[in-house]
Amino acid sequence: MRITSIDIVGYGKWSDAHFNHISDFQVIFGENEAGKSTIMAFIHSILFGFPTRQQSIPRMEPKNGGPYGGRLTLEDTPMGKVIVERLKGKATGDVRIYYGDGQVAGEEKLTEIIGEIDRNTFEAIFSFDIHGLQNIHQWKKKEFERYLLATGTTGSDALLKTAEILQKKLEALFKPSGRNPAINQQLKKVKDSQLAFQEAKKQNAKYELLLVGKEEERARQTELQEEKTAIRVELDTLNTLLDLWPIYQEWKALSEKAVPLTEATFPPDGIIRLEHLQLREKEWQNQLIQLEERQKNLINKNNFEHTAFFAENEAEITYLIETYGAYNERELQQKSLEKEIKYYQTDAKQTPMKWTKELDQKVLRIKELEQINKQQQHDIQLELKLTQESEEKLQQKIDKIETNMWDNKRFQQEKEKINSKEKTPVTKSIVAVGIFLVALVVLVIFQSIWSVAVVFLVALISVYLLVLTKTPAPSSNQQILAFLEQQKIRQEWQQLLSEMDIIASQIAQLEERQSRINKSQYDYQSELNHLFDTLAINELPDENWEAIVQTYKEHSEKNQLAAELTLKLEPLAEKQHSYQLRLEKLDAPIEPTNIEEKISFLRQGLLYYRNNLTENAKLAEKMEQVTMQLNLVKQDLLLVKKEKADLLEQAKVNNEDEFRVAAMRVKQEQQWRERLILLEAQLEPDKRLALSQFSAQEVIKEKELQLEEKLRKIELEQENIHASLAAKNHEIATLEEGGTFAALMQDFYSEKSKLQQMTREWTETKLALQILQETMRSLQEGKLPKTLALATDYFNHLTNGNYTKVYLQENRIQVESKDVVSFFPEELSQATKEQLYLAIRFALIDVIHKDFPLPIIIDDGFVHFDSARMVQMMQLLQKRKSTNQVIFFTCHQETRKYFSSEDIRVL
């Protein structure tokens, strides 16, 4: 936003004044009393309203009684070019806003133009003079957060005002050194009534004995409670170990299985390679058989009696012979698949759902929730018990101190007595000397016998008074010592009260955490129930839910594997059946016992049939070819057998059945390792170490029973102590009955109840204020560090690198020099302090620039700068004019050289 024109109708000394064509880097020069500060105040009044008569800011109304107000022309606003006019009317003036399209709006639209920013914030950040620069040492973290909140939050004024109201209410209820607040007055009443009550108690010897016995039994009860807490902690640990015992047993068993396992010697893809070699061996054997038969047929040269059969079915026989190798391969695959299916179906039960990775993740998440909830429940209960016990002990200390402490009235009376005794001798000495001096004056003036007699008499009186002043008053040193002792007791009592407030706040936080943990436990149980419902497990989840889910998973995975293998088996079985049907339809002239025998017959017969059709001249050539092929096939068959033997040797087995068993064992070992990793993730090392101390689950249970028996004995002793305390309390109550004593006791407890009610109100107000302050602080979490980082950059630039860091320490601004020495602002020179203040202002402007692109207005802010500092400052302002308009008021001629002639306006 830029101010391009200032039109003053009447404001201070200015009347009907116009300043047009204001540039982005404008200097307004004028001598003292020329009206520079008045123009600056006029800009503030137009944007934020005329000061009211109740404010300390002057209203600057014209002395001649003329019109009051004026207008500003603003450009680059969210509404474009606008004219803001404010004239005399209501207390802050009547506002009209003129838009570029001719529309007119009221003051309610002003915040859309300049943003949610008030006058104080604007003057603290964007508009300043030399006096503002001199107050940097007074800034604390609270001021930073206040400006960041006021410029970054809608409705921030309401938050700040509410915080102020709550603070005033706290101060009205209680002040540590106050007298008038309600709690302070009530404390005095409680102390008075308590002193009277305690005095009445001391009159009864039996009452004191009962109190001593009561305190001893309470101390014993505290000891028993501490021992009971320790036992409960140990029981909780044992319960945790009992819950983890099944997992530990499974982990231990798998660990023992995994120990003898060596590096896997089984060849990779062993089963696939074996089946491939078997198929190749079968093919070479079939070829070997074929070649041997062909060789026999060629040798025998017998007439063939089944010529008609082979002539009629030659094509079908050829197809069956050629595809017989594939048939054998499928037969091997089918047997292998059937073995695997049988293995997986041996112990697997049917499951309604398939096991997926999502279910694995869900089970793992539920386990983590279970462990976290158990640990958190244990921790929060232990912390809550310990904190409550600390509160009881602290209250006992406070009660004990209050019995020996004076009330406020007596304390103040003793303090005044001691102070008055110190002043009286000095007063008497002054009076004696004064009387003697007056007598001397009389003697000098009158110089008669009577005057001498009067002087002599006065001298005697003065000597008497002086002697009296030297005679010490019978003030008691014991009273002074008693007073000092009371001062010490009172300080200790106030410290204990502060500690009590802290413990009360801790208990409230712990109870809130406990409610969140209970909700988390409910969510965990709901998720576990949902898992069982999803898996259709007809059991309620208990401590062994993990074993149930693991068993379900194993059955599901086996069923899935068996189903997948069954799908692979079906097309193989269908092809085998089809091949067998075609072979059965072929009516062979013989009756073979099996398929292999029938194929052999067909192969031999077909060869013989075809050989008889060839010419005898080719018989020798064919015989030679068959012999060569027979030798090659034998060599290939030997190579295949050698590869298969090497594969079996690599797996360290003697036959194919052992090889398949080894493959299944390796697969099982891999599953063991994966399960072992999962179990180790669930069992932390310290838990495994603790579980290893027990030989069986029964040992843990036995120790648990021993602790429970010890706990039962402690509880029985506590009951006896409780009964004894009840009897003593009854006797004490009987002794406390009676007119005066009962009235004093009732008065004490009545006043104490009123004090507790007031304290509760103070605590609620304090918590509300803390929550509100935390809310305001969270709104500025990202802005304050960014502001300090930007301030560091600006300050480093303005000081030529002499200072390298701006930060908050002990709730105050500090800077660090390049020599790593820290300074508070008041320890810097005046000019360096002003540079620091400017760096912080520019940092704040950068942080809020997105929401508040307002002009920077400076009224002679650099009078303490030397020439070097002035050059750096003006260079920085030159850079800033691209983001914020800069209007500079000055009465110093030397600053004009940093501006162009077009940017200088002389008043």
Question: Please, could you describe this protein's structure?
Answer:
- The strands form 3 sheets. A 6-stranded antiparallel beta sheet has the order 2-1-4-5-6-7. The protein has a 5-stranded parallel beta sheet with strand order 8-12-13-3-14, sandwiched between helices.
- The chain is flat, with a radius of gyration of 52 Å.
- The chain has 907 residues and is of the alpha/beta class.
- The protein has 26 helices and 14 strands.
- Helix content is 69%, strand content 8%.
- A hairpin with a 6-residue loop joins strand 5 and strand 6 (94-99).
- The chain starts with a strand and ends with a strand.
Q: Which range best describes the helical content: under 10%, 10-25%, 25-40%, 40-55%, 55-70% or over 70%?
A: 55-70%
Stretches where pLDDT is under 50 for at least 5 consecutive residues are: 149-157, 469-475
Task: Give the integer mean of the pLDDT values.
Answer: 78
Sequence of strands across the biggest β-sheet: 2-1-4-5-6-7
Q: In this structure, how is the largest beta sheet organized? A: 6 strands, antiparallel
Count of DSSP H/I helices: 26
Cα radius of gyration in angstroms: 52 Å
Distance between the termini: 24 Å
Instruction: Indicate the structural class.
Output: alpha/beta
What form results from the Cα inertia axes? Answer: flat
Number of strands: 14
Q: Strand percentage, roughly?
A: 5-15%
